[in-house]
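We modelled the chain as a single entity of 345 amino acids. Its sequence is:
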Amino acid sequence: MWFRRDLRLHDNAALHSALSQSDNVFCVFIFDINILDNLKSKEDQRIEFIWEALKEMKTSLNSIKSDIIVMHANPMEAIPAILNKYNCEALFFNKDYESYAAKRDGDVMGCVSKLGVESYQFKDTVLFEEKEILSQSDKPYTVFSPYKNNHLNRLYQDGIIQHDCESNKKKFAVVEAEEIPSLESLGFKKTNLDRLKIPTGSSGGKYLLLDFEKRIDHYKQRRDYPGKKGVSYLSVHNRFGTISIREQALIAMNKQSEGSLVWLNELVWRDFYFQILSNFPYINDGASFKPQFDQIPFENNLQFFEAWKSGQTGFPIIDAAMHQLNQTGFMHNRLRMIVASFLVK
């Protein structure tokens, strides 16, 4: 089981399938050198967040005499090596829809097939993917509202099935525990994650989700005010899959309050942009979604751009938002809209 953006041992589609179909499941995570080597800052909160999530997973697996193998390597080399070392017959992983990841995964699948190993991919990051939600003309949607209506109809009609990974936990392979590579060995330094008090791992995601569930009925009224505790603060947990998209959607659907339904709408927005990424891959190369927008002239004043990035525009709300992002790695949803509009308009 190759973990990537799904750093949890519960309600995990690929893990559930691996545990259901296999006698021994070996868990692995690879700090991909092709990604890490391109990160300019060596004090990257994302890397530390992943590291903390892996540490929590390792503790859980160690308690049942298993482990997660953590490597700092090129997946094209590391995955075949692990498959050979443990005589694995299949590779399970959840889909990643970003351009580099999709190509990498295709290359890895091609490589391991030469070893006689079957690869199995699963939908896990989203509720509906790729071409699951199409227009009446069987084409991908380019406008959100009709996509949302179709998506929600399917969601309520099909329901949500979570993946039980607990029942077969005896299938985790017995592995001698090894240390996770330190941040320093990965070429990174400890950040301010502790000082920011950002809950990490699946336990952190669960804590934030339960906290938000108590506030979700007021989400519509409070989400637009950066100074109020109105949003979920779950974006980084969704980014790295320490919580399941299904458990979040179920909370919203079961609540059926005004606030919860507005938040469910936000989860549908997330699916919408994932299907845009899959169905219109040219946007991965920096092209505008609508080609005519590539012709819009921009001033491209680098001095202004640097002022915007560093929060030195002289416009208080813009600068405060950029300072929040630079210091914490997080920006409130409403502020994201404001600073983006400020930049391009």
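As a brief sanity check on the tokenised model: The chain has a mean pLDDT of 96. Residues 258-279 form the longest helix (22 residues).
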